[in-house]
Amino acid sequence: MHAFTRPSRRGFLAGAASLAAIPQAYAQAPSVSFLVIGDWGESSNGQHAVAGAMGRIGAEIGSAFVISTGDNFYSRGVASVDDPQWTETFESAFSAPSLQTPWYAVLGNHDYRGSIAAEIDYTIESPRWHMPSRYWRQDITIGADTASFFMLDTFPLTHMGSARARVPILGDSSEAHAQLRWLEVELAASHARWKIVVGHHPILSSGAHGGDDMLAQYVQPLLQRYDVNAYFNGHDHDLELLRDGDVNYICSGAGSEFRGMRAPLPQTRFAHSGLGFVSCRLGEAPSVRFHDGEGRVLHTAQLEALE
Q1: Taking the complete model, does pTM exceed 0.85, yes or no?
Q2: Helices (DSSP H) in the chain: which residue ranges?
Q3: Are 144 and 32 in contact (CB under 8 A)?
Q4: Structural domains in the chain?
Q5: Backbone angles phi, psi at 240, to 5 degrees
Q6: How many CA atoms lie within 13 A of 142 on its CB side?
Q7: Cβ-count burial 135-161 (b if 16+ within 10 Å, e if not)
Q8: pLDDT tens digits, 200-236
Q9: Kindly report the CA angle at 159 between 201 and 222, in degrees rounded to 5?
Q10: Which one of 178, 280, 295, 297 has the fewest CB atoms closer than 10 angstroms to its CB?
Q11: Cα–Cα distance for residue pair 306/183, rounded to 1 Å
């Protein structure tokens, strides 16, 4: 059972919603597994390979849901809830039985080139697409514990403090500051055993784009102050694990194509330039696994901060 409020029809101007989702199938289980994919939004040989591999791994681990780290549709987002890309790039591409689960999705910069309202409103149309607002909190119950996912809209945040903040679609900078205030209030009030923040843009990265200065200035201190366990992102088309203090920075941005990488950072624990995705387990023996485009495990790490 998934409980959430009806999304606002105001599209990208819609604010945040704090939502509780407690899927009964695993609410009492000692652990839960899920998949993470980003930058997957184009129908290509690479996307089809990753989708097939995700279907196999999803069945193997009993994946309960999928996290999408943004750039859901290339190269200009979707035009409406009836855009054929919904079928071609999402519904048909990720058709494996194990992927017919909730997809908790955030917005990427390419999504902003289309209709943000359409991606929010598709939550009403689809039994598995979940983007009830531009940013929100998703709670998952695992046995006696809770995992809270704080889903961000990082595109406006990356435009703070510069002339880019005047991009018309973003509104004025008060929108970004309102999101930051929301995040801090939610993190400060949370008693969840696992706190995971999800955004499209990286805070730390040795990928082609690298970390974003605005997120490092405004979001990273909140992750550290409120004991966030992990930050998931895409944008850089690669797979990475970086660790700074107790925060794990996990990039899954190679869902349909990949790019070269720069030299590893001091915080880098794993980096791979190639197609792929991530699988995670929370609860007993919490861990993260990085898979290539054929599903093979490239790297496994225990998420010590989650224990």
Answers
A1: yes
A2: 45-61, 85, 116-125, 154-158, 174-189, 213-218, 220-225
A3: no
A4: 2-306 (3.60.21.10)
A5: -150, 150
A6: 22
A7: bbbbbbbbeeebbbbbbbbbbbbbbbe
A8: 999 999 999 999 999 999 999 999 999 999 999 999 9
A9: 60
A10: 297
A11: 20
Tokens read off for 126:
């689809």
Retrieve residue 33's tokens: 């597994």
Amino acid occupying residue 242: L
**Inter-CA distances, 235 with 31, 112, 227, Å:** 29, 13, 24
Q: Are 107 and 116 in contact (CB under 8 A)?
A: yes
Q: Which residues are catalytic?
A: 209
Taking the C-alpha atoms of residue 77 and residue 240, their distance in angstroms, rounded to an integer, is 25
Q: How confident is the model at residue 147 (pLDDT cuts 50, 70, 90)?
A: very high
Q: How far apart are CA 98 and CA 107, in angstroms?
A: 23
Two tokens, residue 288 = 């993260």
Q: Which amino acid would we find at residue 18?
A: S
Q: Where are the alpha helices (DSSP H) in 101-145?
A: 116-125
Burial of 73 (0-12, 13-18, 19+ CB in 10 A): buried
The number of residues in the chain equals 307
Q: Which residues pair with 63 in a beta bridge?
A: none
